[in-house]
């Protein structure tokens, strides 16, 4: 959908509130909102091949690699309100490692879609497993959900944590424990 089509939809939404679209503060809001929404859902236009861009490198390392505190934002598919937090990703390579920035780019590709945190966590883990052929992958996401903070139960300090453990992170408790202890 084009930004121009989305602009018309935002005009309808704003109009439905009873606001005056000709009010100076709102004149450009529908297009600004359309462009923002286009960015917030830009993950739909990306492919994994574009994101990884051949940034897989040969490596003899078979020790755990952890990238932690990767900021993320997404939009709850139930209320279309943001959730904001951080992801921690670990994997144990088998012959190749993924370029460091590509971990964050994979997270962004999936996060910039209408999403639930549980699925986002699984998508990231599964994708890193597929791309690297790692012997194990662990992903933990901690996020605050504006759908819980701004509406419904209105709980300002709640945080949701989700995890996905694949391969040796699921099968081997000591691998999982090492990952969790290194996050502290």
Biggest sheet statistics: 5 strands, mixed
Structural class determined from secondary elements? alpha+beta
CATH H-level homologous superfamily name of the largest domain = GTP cyclohydrolase I, C-terminal domain/NADPH-dependent 7-cyano-7-deazaguanine reductase, N-terminal domain
The percent range for helix content is: 40-55%
Strand-residue proportion: 25-35%
- The total domain count is 2
Poorly predicted ranges (pLDDT <50, ≥5 residues)? none
Mean pLDDT: 96
CATH level-3 fold name of the largest domain:
GTP Cyclohydrolase I, domain 2
Number of contiguous helices? 8
CATH architecture label name of the largest domain? 2-Layer Sandwich
| CATH C-level of the largest domain | Alpha Beta
The Rg value, from CA coordinates, equals 19 Å
Name the descriptors.
GTP Cyclohydrolase I, domain 2, 2 domains, two-stranded antiparallel ribbon, elongated, 5-stranded mixed β-sheet, alpha+beta, 184 residues
Entry summary:
The chain is 42% helix and 27% strand. The chain has 184 residues and is α+β, with helices and mostly antiparallel strands. Strand 2 (65-76) and strand 3 (82-92) form a beta hairpin.
Describe the structure.
There is one protein chain. This protein is of the alpha+beta class. The protein folds into 2 domains: 3-40, no CATH class; 53-183, 2-Layer Sandwich (GTP Cyclohydrolase I, domain 2). Helix content is 42%, strand content 27%. It has 8 helices and 7 strands. It has helices at residues 3-16, 29-40, 48-52, 100-111, 117-132, 146-149, 168-171, 173-183; strands spanning 56-58, 65-76, 82-92, 96-98, 114-115, 136-145, 160-167. Strands 5-2-3-6-7 form a 5-stranded mixed β-sheet, sandwiched between helices. A two-stranded antiparallel sheet has the order 1-4. Strand 2 (65-76) and strand 3 form a beta hairpin. Helix 4 (100-111) packs antiparallel against helix 5 (117-132). The longest helix is centred in the C-terminal third of the chain and has 16 residues, at 117-132. It is elongated and about 65 Å long. The N and C termini lie far apart (43 Å).
């Amino acid at each position: 959908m084009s930004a121009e089509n989305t602009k018309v939809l935002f005009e309808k939404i704003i109009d439905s509130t009873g606001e005056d679209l000709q009010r100076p503060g709102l004149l450009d809001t529908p297009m600004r909102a359309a462009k923002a929404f286009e960015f917030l859902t830009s993950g739909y236009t990306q492919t994994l091949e574009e994101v990884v861009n051949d940034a897989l490198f040969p490596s003899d390392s078979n020790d755990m690699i952890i990238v932690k505190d990767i900021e993320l934002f997404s939009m709850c598919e139930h209320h279309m309100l943001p959730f904001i937090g951080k992801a921690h990703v670990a994997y144990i390579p088998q012959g190749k490692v993924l370029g460091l920035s590509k971990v964050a780019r994979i997270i962004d590709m999936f996060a910039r879609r209408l999403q639930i945190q549980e699925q986002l966590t699984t998508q990231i883990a599964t994708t890193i497993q597929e791309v690297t052929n790692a012997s194990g992958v662990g992903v933990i996401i901690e996020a605050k959900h504006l759908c819980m903070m701004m509406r419904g139960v209105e709980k300002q300090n709640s945080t949701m944590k989700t995890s996905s453990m694949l391969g040796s992170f699921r099968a081997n408790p000591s691998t999982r424990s090492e990952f969790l202890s290194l996050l502290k």
